[in-house]
Amino acid sequence: MTEPRSALVLFSGGQDSTTCLAWALNRYERVETVGFSYGQRHAVELQCREPIRRALRRLSPDWDGRLGPDRVVDLAVLGEVSLSALTADLPLGTRPDGLPATFVPGRNLVFLAFAGIVAFQRGIGRLVAGVCETDFSGYPDCRDETVRAMSKALGLGMATDMPVETPLMFVDKAATWRLAREIGGQALVDLVVAETHTCYLADRTHRHPWGYGCGECDACRLRRAGWERFVLSR
């Protein structure tokens, strides 16, 4: 049996999943996290996860009481079979089919499947994912239609409801920054800037107003542009 007042957050250590984790902690009585090691070039994101979890605990006594265990699933085989600029030292840019070179075929499908397994085993009632089809790199497995299909497949395959919450699906990056401020005030915005990692090239040496990163990859470009719109709207 799954508990409807519980949630498992797919937590990478990036801006979007951190915002979604705070969102879930505001809504559910029991929240756990799961991350995936798949041979990503920016594996430094995995090192950011626990410091972020500790920082979120400090921001709110309620969050401290609700935040449960974390686990990282080893999916190295995904990086071996889904060759891309995100899993190998290949140039960024665009593939011949028009998709970004950083697209990892099947990545979010595999993530949701394994997250569903973890949730089922833990008696958790829903998944929370930071995917978005508004301000995004163009990955087809980030689209709402894809996520809804996976949610239905998980429910059918496990004979239980397995809704997938996607708080950021239809908002741009500026709205993601605003959501963080609405949830946790300036303290959460500062945490996202200082502690999260999004840069595809794993750059943790260059600190910008919006956080660490190379400033040139798609992830940095989207984060920077969202920050600039967010600052202008304040």
What does this structure look like?
This protein has a single domain, classed as 3-Layer(aba) Sandwich (Rossmann fold), CATH 3.40.50. It is built from 8 helices and 7 strands; from the N terminus they run βαβααβααβαβαββα. The protein has helices spanning 15-27, 44-59, 61-66, 76-81, 107-122, 144-158, 173-195, 218-233, and strands spanning 6-10, 30-37, 67-74, 127-128, 164-165, 207-208, 211-212. A 5-stranded parallel beta sheet has the order 3-2-1-4-5, with helices on both faces. Strands 6-7 form a two-stranded antiparallel sheet. Helix 1 packs across helix 7, helix 2 (44-59) packs across helix 7 (173-195) and helix 7 packs across helix 8.
Q: What descriptive keywords fit this protein?
A:
234 residues, globular, two-stranded antiparallel sheet, 7 strands, single chain, alpha/beta, 47% helix, Rossmann fold
- The value of Rg in angstroms is 17 Å
Can you tell me the CATH architecture? Answer: 3-Layer(aba) Sandwich
Total number of beta strands: 7
Number of domain units: 1
How confident is the prediction overall: mean pLDDT? Answer: 94
Low-confidence segments: none
SSE blueprint and pairings:
Blueprint: E1 6-10, H1 15-27, E2 30-37, H2 44-59, H3 61-66, E3 67-74, H4 76-81, H5 107-122, E4 127-128, H6 144-158, E5 164-165, H7 173-195, E6 207-208, E7 211-212, H8 218-233
Parallel strand pairs: 1-2, 1-4, 2-3, 4-5
Antiparallel strand pairs: 6-7
